[in-house]
Design a protein that fits this description.
Shape: globular
CATH architecture of the largest domain: Roll
Strand order of the largest sheet: 5-9-6-10-11
CATH superfamily of the largest domain: Gamma-glutamyl cyclotransferase-like
Helix content: 25-40%
CATH class of the largest domain: Alpha Beta
Number of domains: 3
Distance between the termini: 37 Å
Largest sheet: 5 strands, mixed, barrel
Number of helices: 10
Radius of gyration: 24 Å
CATH topology of the largest domain: Hypothetical upf0131 protein ytfp
Order of helices and strands: HHHHHHEHEEHEEHEEEEHEE
Strand content: 15-25%
Length: 336
Amino acid sequence: MDQIQNELELMAQGAATICQYATSKSDAVERWVKLFGYARAEAESKIERRREDINSTTISMEHWDMIREEKEAEGHDKESYEHSIDLLKHRQHSSQTPKSTAAVAQKRPARFLLKLEGPLQDIKTVQEAASLSCPPKIRQGSDDSGRPVRFCQIDSVARDKIINFVAGKAWAYDLTSNLLPDRTAEKNLSPTSAYPMLGIDGMLPQFRGGDHVLPRDNQYPVWYFFYGTLAQPKVLQSVCGEEQPTWNLHISYIFGGDLKTWGRKYKALVDHEGYAESKAVYGFSYLVVSEEVELALRVYETEKYEVVRCTIHLASGRRIMKGLTFKFVGDEVLEP
């Protein structure tokens, strides 16, 4: 009897879904063509199959009301958003071997900081030595005596090319002492898609262009979502120093992630499998005013984290902001 009852409930849910969408098929076709890049006939076919499939993903109206403003701004209605979830699930399940956080972290290229001095004080010389298409990014710093120094960011491939370049020169120059591992949290936001974004494959077609590329890589001020020690005002002030004029933290929440723990005490935000099924992760939002302040935060979080895009909801009202947060990418064992 329980099995029959469950089947009847599923059929009722499916019928309710069909009735809900039956009057807007033409609008749905136009929307799906624009969002997913389908041909009109393909969009119409997929819509029909979805409305006939009682096992297709549906989210509650309560959940839809929480994210409606954000998703409608992206061009979605409830049905197209549910279809985007099905696409994400299919993409995840089609992978032959799930990628663990550790596996992803191990594949990340090593990053280094090269001190710009001596024969390599000119960034153009470094660019030539490393065979780079554009100059590497410069980072300001200071030595042990407090004097200003400059570094540039390079990867392991560029490092090896620079080593070979220096080896072919008759220079009295100690390269190894000027190469340091880059321990800062990586930030590499795509200019054409939402990638990297918490809980979502930002490279899918529906996440390209428009507001999906916000915030941009060099956009300041920019909102950040904090969930660990950075959510403590004293810690935040000690990290950011005098560069940050205010210390206002706002109670906020995000979707698409799960909070874990590593080292028995450190918080780790990771992707949740299925954005729609994720629960709200509560923390604090904070407006970072400059690249210098952001760099201090990235140094604090270390290479065990990376900067990813997210959508921040203020708990005090219905304001929704495109922002950033730190996602864990280390290889430590995570605990609930």
